[in-house]
Amino acid sequence: MIDHKNHKNQRSIRPKEMKKLLLFSALLLSLTACTDTIDVDVEGGETQLAVDGEITDQPGPYTIKLTETVYAFGSDAPPAVRGATVLLADSQGKVDTLRETSPGTYQTRSLRGRVGNSYTLTIGNTRFGTYKATTEIRRPTPIDSVYAEYRDIVPGTTSSGYLIRYNYTDPKGVGDNFRAKLYQGTGSEAAKLLNKPFNLSFVQDIYNDGQTVKDVLTTPEKFEKGDRAVLVLASLTNDAYLFLNELQQQTNNGGLFANPPANVRTNIVNTDANGKKAVGYFFGSAITTRTTTVN
């Protein structure tokens, strides 16, 4: 618990910075289910629509989550946005009306994501206005190998264990971006996603076009013998790559000489140019998966 009200070296937070902190908090909440408790003697900020959604080339349904931003240093969970009208259309003229399966969670009925198609998400009937987002599904690439490597000290921990490495061959032609998601499974338990905003793994092919890419995935959790490591490689648009890059920079923006918090880009746009802005992102990805067992 950090109580800035009693801290001798307290840095005051200006209203503009406070609003940016609130927006950034919404992005973190869309990627992780837990936040730190921090007490700060500042006022709340303006509420906005937060969108977290993705369409892939895998069978649906695809999920869009709508919430309202919450005060960055508050303890309340983001309120769900209920009763919205959510449509998803592809570049082939197909339109799907999503159904609300639980408060603030909307799922497709029949639309199927396909490589090469572009997609437009429309969100209406909210108190914030009507919003649109566009994305596309870029080409995938196979994962050549996934394997475990023993270390006396696993990065991010203080003990021995295994970390996960992977290789893939980047397709020829500049413009391919990929995000690696690492899941860990133990016994009969479902594999859980390990990557958090501070250790996202994503690659742009400006310097390795058409080459073999070798990377290591570091997470606070270590792997033991018998664990399953599931690697998901998701293609990204250029804008989605920049979104993740900015998100990671803001997450790791700390220390004495940290820059003031800044808003992370979004592809969620209010159809009213003078209306409230939104936060979050609507991704399009082609997926390849490979699993290995640590032994």
Descriptive labels:
mainly beta; 2 domains; disordered N terminus; signal; DUF4249; DUF4249 domain-containing protein
Report the C-alpha radius of gyration, rounded. Answer: 20 Å
Give a count of the beta strands, DSSP E runs of length 2 or more: 20
Task: Give, in order, the helices and strands.
Answer: EHEEEEEEEEEEEEEEEEHEEE
Unreliable residue runs: 1-26, 32-44
Number of domains: 2
Multimerization status: single chain
SS-derived structural category: mainly beta
Strand coverage percent: 35-45%
Major β-sheet strand ordering: 7-8-4-3-19
Q: Would you tell me the overall average pLDDT?
A: 83
- Overall 3D geometry? globular
Q: Largest sheet at a glance?
A: 5 strands, mixed
Straight-line distance between termini? 40 Å
Helix content: 10-25%
Number of helices: 2
What do you see in this structure?
- The protein is mainly beta and 295 residues long.
- It folds into 2 domains: 188 residues, no CATH class; 98 residues, Sandwich (Immunoglobulin-like).
- 11% of the residues lie in helices and 39% in strands.
- It has a 5-stranded mixed β-sheet with strand order 7-8-4-3-19, covered by helices on one side.
- A hairpin with a 2-residue loop joins strand 9 and strand 10.
- The radius of gyration is 20 Å and the shape is globular.
- It starts with a strand and ends with a strand.
